[in-house]
Design brief:
The complex is a heterodimer of chains A (about 550) and B (about 400). Chain A has about 550 residues and is an alpha/beta fold. Chain A has 17 helices and 20 strands. Helix content of chain A is about 35%, strand content about 20%. Chain A starts with a strand and ends in a 14-residue tail after the last helix. By secondary structure, chain B is of the alpha+beta class. The chains are: A alpha/beta (about 550), B alpha+beta (about 400). At the A-B interface, helix 3, helix 4 and helix 6 of A face helix 4 of B.
């Protein structure tokens, strides 16, 4: 059988990005994917005839524009369109509308509190300070702080310089921001429950933490540090669903001569004499390569498809202790028409991107209490969007598709695995929550895909259904992601690399881990670097 | 105003209209609107030059209702504003107005504005920016209430050499005796009207403050009984030209409001904006005092220079050089039609910007798609290039 230069395990967006760069550099690359389709969690599938869902990830902001441009994703069919604003419904019948337009947003916040409307400027400036600090590091390999290699020292110096440029106060704020809770952070700016609740969602999405858990302020930053066309913090839809990103990456990869093999599950990364030799597939095939890149999360990589005996005990221990907790679920719903929403009868809902139904931090914290009690939230936090208001390709004319991200959903229910009945009841909880604010919602439902952490784990391959492939807390970021000593994309075995969201800079459809890992691989091959650096923020 | 009564309950209005809207809408022949703090306001009613010369030669009338206004009252109101502001407010008499700066604790300017004293413990603070959050944080520990009264007060600036005459003809008897920065209270056909001798034009001028429900009546009265076109509504473009000529700074243009700053070091202190005269270090406590004291001793990082620029090309956004070294940038610039001066305000790194420094502005201008670059000599001027005696004369002249 043919021997490849490199095999990438998992055709998610990071695996495809990594492979595309290796192929572009001239390597003979094969991507193997366990599912019969590509995309991982960046996928659009038709589960109800005529409707395409973004089955997992559903909106786009973090995808590095440097990579999209460099790999010619637009030429390969990718189109990303920003969506405006959002709304949080209140239980008292009122709502809070988040507008992109600064003046209008001021007036809407002022409707709840003039003080908050003014404080939003300070909040916005403070958050932007933090995004400006982190954005330049997204396409850089984290330095190893214990190394004395010139490159690590240079990188450390670069990191220190960026911190010092913040000034004394900025430095203090940064440390606070990276460690504190989003609830505490927002309490420092705002007095209105619904304003705080609307903004806090970004601090908990994908995270098994509550709004008052330390570390959630950083998670908010993670959702703010992307951009659409330079508009930092903006989010958009990929036309045709998030699968359009994977499809464009795949087309780019193939244009450089790379190959993709679907329905090819890897059971083992083969290691001989401390070096990788290739992968063994579930069908018994073995594929040879000197380089094997895992796009699986660190737990699956080191504990499922590598033999513990091939690994340093330290790595096994770190992998076991890696924090990757299931916290969310997903509903994708085919609708017979556009639902109406209480209080928004006179509002153009195409102005509204995200819809939320949690009107206070206390409300959201209670949703987290259910997670701790090992059950799904009875009043869940929802991040709900109707992309077909913008995208004509995902549902028949006049029909709509709704994507609902749900938090919280624990990895197990009362100490046991999820059952189909649990999943259906979980879906019902979500649908009832939306129906409280939308009178005609239920009667419009034609089909719904309900995904609990069980489905996210089994179908997509995310351990516990954790969408970031590892919690985005400070203990697992930068040179500690996935674990200390292994943050530069190299595995503990020669020729073995990691490129998943479990590596720096973490989860979200960013493609940065895949690109950064490619840079390191090319470096080891003494191949000139072809992976772009970050655009400079002004 | 409409921001307290949204058209759809539960929905913020798309755009706000000032209490004069029914009149400004008719007057705005060019339909050139722009948004000022959410309000649709006229950029230009008919012709910017005509409007500018109304300010300098006759009377220009500017709807300044969107100006942000805070009412400050309570037993500790005087102590509060004295702590809040860098100026000594104890010296400000009742029915007097003071130009003031609001600093954060780092000594950077959050906004500049005007403070009106109605009584010992009752004030109005007018600002360009929303600053309520800072006002309320600063109010902790004081027996004071602070609230945004922007929508409750309509305001009209009446500016220019004939402004006093115009207003007297309208029935404001004795207005000529009002001193600069003084306030007077009138009743016009039963309408309570507060008049202050203040403005943003550097000329003789007044501002009228009234309840929004009387706005249309007062507008009509200002424009009644006047010789044709000697009283003109003016838009923001003409006003901006007048304020540059007068050497006044504007928030968001000549400095970035401190609470909105993202990049470290981009704030400016009063000492760096030519506003050291607003800072009274003899006060033992005020917001920003410690930082400003330190800066005074160490020397400010920047100075705001008034520049007379060689030639007639406005030095908008120009870099400023001193002996080939880039030392600053222009923040506001215009050819000033009354002063016949090419004037600029520039933020210059210290120690540059001293009187004898040979400064040059790098000016680019395009004519028919052709860019030309010129290095124009700049002379530092200490006085405003336009400062007519009538501005400060009492009794105010008729023309």
């Amino acid at each position: 059988m043919k021997k490849y230069d490199a095999i990438v395990i998992g055709a998610g967006h990071n695996g495809l990005t990594n492979a595309a760069y290796l192929a572009k550099a001239g390597l003979d690359v094969l991507v193997v994917e366990k599912n019969p389709y590509i995309g991982g969690a960046t996928v659009s599938r038709e589960l109800h005839e005529g409707w395409k869902y973004s089955n997992c990830s559903y909106v786009c902001s973090l995808l590095r524009p440097e990579i999209a441009r460099d790999l010619e994703l637009p030429r390969h069919g990718l189109q990303v369109q920003p969506y405006g604003g959002g709304v949080t419904f209140c239980r008292n019948g009122d709502h809070f509308l988040y507008y992109e337009d600064h003046e209008r947003l001021y007036r809407e916040i002022a409707r709840h509190s003039k003080r908050d409307a003014n404080a939003y400027d300070r909040y916005g400036a403070d958050v932007i300070k933090q995004t400006r600090l982190i954005r330049p590091f997204l396409l850089r390999t984290p330095p190893d702080p214990s190394s004395f290699k010139p490159r690590d020292l240079m990188e450390l110096r670069h990191l220190a310089k960026a911190f010092m440029e913040l000034g004394e106060e900025g430095l203090a704020d940064t440390l606070r921001f990276w460690t504190m809770s989003i609830g505490d952070y927002l309490d420092g700016y705002f007095e209105t429950d619904v304003v705080k609740a609307h903004l806090a969602g970004s601090g908990i999405i994908g995270t098994a933490l509550g709004v008052y858990s330390p570390g959630t302020a950083y998670v908010l930053l993670h959702h703010y540090m992307g951009d659409v066309d330079g508009n930092v913090g903006a989010w958009g839809f990929a036309r045709g669903g998030m699968g359009a990103i994977a499809n464009a990456l795949a087309a780019s990869l193939q244009s450089y001569g790379g190959e993709i093999r679907c329905a090819a599950e890897v059971t083992q990364i083969m290691v001989r004499n401390g070096k990788t030799t290739g992968v063994a597939l579930a069908n018994g095939d073995e594929v040879q390569a000197d380089i094997v890149v895992s796009n699986l999360d660190p737990k699956r990589t080191f504990l499922n498809i590598m033999a513990e005996s091939d690994l340093p005990a330290d790595v096994v221990r770190k992998a076991r202790n890696f924090k990757i907790r299931g916290s969310s679920g997903k509903l994708n719903i085919a609708l017979d028409g556009l639902p109406t929403f209480n209080g928004l009868e006179n509002v153009d809902t195409s102005m509204i991107g995200e819809m939320h139904f949690s009107d206070s931090l206390a409300h959201m914290e209670r949703a987290y209490d259910d997670w701790k009690d090992e059950t799904w939230s009875k009043e869940p936090y929802l991040d709900m969007l109707i992309p077909t208001q913008y995208d004509p390709t995902m549902a028949p004319p006049g029909k709509h598709m709704m994507t609902v991200f749900v938090q919280y959903a624990p990895p197990t229910i009362d100490g046991r695995d999820w059952t189909d009945e649990d999943r259906d009841n979980f879906g019902k909880t979500v649908i009832d929550t939306i129906a409280n604010y939308s009178p005609n919602f239920k009667e419009l439902i034609l089909h719904a895909e309900v995904r609990s952490p069980r489905e996210l784990e089994n179908e997509v391959g995310l351990t516990e259904g954790n969408i970031f492939m590892g919690e985005l807390t400070f203990d697992q970021l930068l040179f500690n992601r996935p674990f200390p000593g292994y943050a530069q994309y190299r595995g503990p075995v020669k020729g073995m690399y990691m490129c998943s969201s479990g590596t720096h800079p973490g989860g979200g459809v960013m493609a940065a881990p895949g690109a950064n890992a490619a840079r390191e691989i090319l470096r080891d091959l003494k191949h000139p670097n072809i992976v772009p650096g970050a655009y400079a923020d002004d | 105003m409409t921001d307290t009564a949204p058209a759809n309950p539960g929905t913020a209005p798309r755009v706000l209209h000032t209490p004069f809207h029914s009149r400004t809408k008719v007057a705005n022949k060019m339909e050139r609107w722009e948004v000022w703090q959410g309000y649709n306001t006229a950029a230009c009613y008919t012709d910017v030059e005509l409007e500018y010369f109304a300010i300098r030669s006759n009377t220009g009338v500017f709807d300044l209702s969107p100006m942000v206004k805070y009412r400050i009252q309570g037993a500790d109101a005087a102590d509060y504003v004295d702590r809040l502001l860098t100026r000594n407010i104890r010296k400000l008499g009742t029915d007097r107005v003071a130009y003031v700066a609001i600093c954060n604790d780092a000594g950077n300017v959050i906004d500049d504005g005007t403070l009106f004293r109605f009584a010992d413990n009752e004030f109005r603070l007018c600002t360009q920016e929303h600053v309520l959050d800072w006002l309320l944080w600063s109010a902790e520990g004081f027996d004071v209430t602070v609230y945004d009264e922007t929508a409750d007060v309509a305001a009209l600036a009446v500016q220019g050499p004939t402004s006093c005459q115009t207003l007297r003809r309208m029935g404001l008897d004795g207005l000529q005796e009002l001193k600069p920065f003084g306030m007077a209270h009138y009743e016009l056909e039963g309408i309570p009207l507060m008049v202050s001798r203040t403005g943003f034009t550097g000329d003789l001028g007044y501002e009228l403050w009234l309840a929004p429900e009387h706005a249309e009546t007062v507008w009509d009265r200002v424009f009644a009984n006047t010789r044709q076109r000697t009283v003109r509504p003016i838009g923001s473009h003409a006003l901006d030209l007048a304020r540059i000529e007068a050497g006044f700074i504007a928030a968001g243009v000549d400095f970035v409001p401190a609470e909105q700053i993202v990049r470290n070091g981009r704030g400016r202190s009063p000492l760096e904006l030519g506003l050291e005269w607003l800072v009274d270090f003899s006060k033992p406590v005020f917001n920003g005092r410690q930082a400003l004291l330190q800066q005074r001793d160490k020397g400010p990082r920047y100075r705001l220079a008034k520049l007379s620029v060689e030639g007639n090309k406005p030095a908008e956004h120009a870099f400023i050089y001193c002996r080939g070294r880039e030392v600053g940038t222009v923040t506001s610039a215009a050819w000033c039609p009354s002063a016949k001066s090419n004037f600029a305000l520039a933020s210059i790194k210290t120690p540059y910007g001293r009187e004898r420094d040979p400064l040059k502005a790098e000016i680019y201008y395009m004519r028919e798609l052709h860019w030309t670059r010129t290095m124009a000599k700049c002379e530092i001027v200490n006085e405003p290039v336009f400062n007519p005696p009538r501005r400060l004369q009492t009794p105010a002249p008729d023309a």
